[in-house]
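Listing 4. Sequential folding, example run.
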Amino acid sequence: MKRFIVITGFLLVAVIGAVAQSNEFVDGLLESDAVTVGQAAYLVLVASDNLGGDADEARAFELLDNFGWAPEGATVDTPILMKDYSFLLMNAFGLKGGFMYGFFPSPRYAYRQLKSSLVIQGRSDPDMTVVGNSAIRMLGRVFDIKGISE
């Protein structure tokens, strides 16, 4: 448990320093039992330099929709599923997928790719909602893959 707290704390500091997002947003995200599409869009798009930190969740969702990465039928307040968050991470950071993702880039294969790359760890399901601390830990692991530092 102590190791988990230390790792989560390190990732929190790395994410805060790397993306310069407000403490209130990150605190709210960490306390969240279900990250919304708007929160996920803001977190990932700011971290990947696709959006400025002065934007809000509504603007982040609008940009996500313009890129074609928004889950079908989702609104800014819809809880994001693990497969959709995986697809967002893959696209925002330009991660290369495996054979199936290369031919059929979709949330399903993005989830499978991040699971095999150990970005997604532990028990999970593509249709489960993403909790706040998982979203930040996954983002930190993507930073490791991409070689992004503070």
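-- end of first protein; second protein begins --
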Amino acid sequence: MASAVMNEKSNNSVVAPAGRLKGKVALITGGTRGIGFAVAQAYVREGAKVIIAGRKSAELTTATQILKEMGGDVTANKIDLNSAAACEALYTGAIRSYGKIDILVNNAAILGPISKIATYRPEEWDVVMRTNADVVYWLSRAVLGTMIPANTGSIINVTSGVGVKGRAGWGAYAVSKAAVNCFTEVLSEEVSQYGIRVNCVDPGATRTEMRAAAFPKEDPATLPKPDDIVNPFIYLASDASKGLTGSILKATDWVGRTF
């Protein structure tokens, strides 16, 4: 998988003109907090209609209120994406609401135990792999139902450095992200003929709850906020990235960039 890297240093503000996603519909999993919510806000600012999915009613209500106060056309779905049927239901509801999906951001993921393979419990392994890898397959397969006939679309998968280079103790999380990377390569080749792009974003170390759980002794104030690393998500969702597929973009290399 080719890695698109931008090397210039910049400040910690997102500098991306509004309106790049006008007329587009984006479905974002894990869209109520952290990186997913930051991407949802960025997409609203850029003019997209946004569908966010999450498991907690209170978080969905708060996120939706904020996005609507920004002027967004937003639909919230309380759903546990733990099966192909649940993913198909989310897709069907989105099509019923907006008639199409131009952008899918497969952001929802769980960390699971930080544990060596020898002591990793099978039931915990299954949950992490299903949430982090199977859902990416199920939802991507669903949205192709409208993307292929439309001959356009962008699927953006969220990966991790441990999916590129495994690390002891990261267990199913690392393996699931490696699976996402390979899935991105496979699907990108299969659907490029339809004008559909499939890429990954590696957020890097970001100030999120998952990062805090993985590195409890780390000072979160030293890390970029989710709002700081949304530029590659905007780029990949926009027409500016047409022709780019099968790549990993490192979000920290895009902080403050314009495109």
